[in-house]
Write a structure and sequence with these properties.
Layout (H helix, E strand, L loop, with lengths): L1 H15 L4 H45 L3 H24 L2 H21 L2 E3 L12 E8 L8 E6 L2 E3 L2 E4 L1 E7 L3
Parallel strand pairs: 2-6
Antiparallel strand pairs: 1-4, 3-6, 4-5
Helix pairs in contact: 3-4
Length: 176
């Protein structure tokens, strides 16, 4: 039993290596100080991380807010050309020139959309696809197989691989 007592007494020396209670107290104070410093470093690191997150979220929100600015600048060029066409027709009353100008602006508009990866969905004479088309009506038509798009009421567009607006279409149906 006395051997066990000696082992218990020698344990603190093995852990701390201190010979006196004063040295042990100094070592405990030093460890407390190091712990406090570690806590402070951790709190500062967490605060820095939170500040970083806030800054990044603010930057992402601003980038999203102004992401379409280049697109808008190009659309404004189309708007300018529409205004010029209207001014020209008002001055000359030349409808042929107006039609030609509007066709040019229309082509420019489609090019701007295409440049920004927004393209028309081909619908006419295609097989109906609910992913790209919205049927507004069906018409009996012997010329085409059932569920073929025979007319397009409103052109659809997609941005990359997402549908911005489905094509509104008229479908053929067989006589029943």
């Amino acid at each position: 039993m006395s051997g066990e007592h000696l082992d218990l007494v020698s344990e603190p020396e093995e852990l701390g290596g201190s010979d006196s209670p004063q040295e042990a107290s100094t070592e405990v104070e030093q460890l407390r100080h190091e712990l406090d410093e570690a806590k402070n470093r951790t709190l500062r690191a967490l605060a820095d991380l939170e500040n970083y997150r806030t800054r990044v979220n603010r930057q992402v929100a601003e980038e999203r807010k102004y992401a379409s600015i280049e697109f808008m600048r190009e659309l404004l060029l189309v708007w300018d050309n529409i205004g010029r066409a209207l001014e020209a027709v008002a001055a000359t009353h030349d409808l042929e020139s107006l039609v030609e100008g509007v066709q040019m602006v229309y082509a420019q508009f489609l090019e701007v959309l295409k440049k920004h990866h927004c393209e028309k969905i081909e619908a006419k004479f295609q097989q109906f696809d609910p992913n790209f088309h919205a049927s507004v009506t069906q018409v009996v038509c012997a010329e085409y197989p059932a569920n073929t798009v025979i007319d397009e009421v409103q052109t659809g567009f997609r941005l990359f691989d997402r549908v911005v607006r489905p094509s509104q279409v008229v479908l053929s149906k067989s006589e029943t």
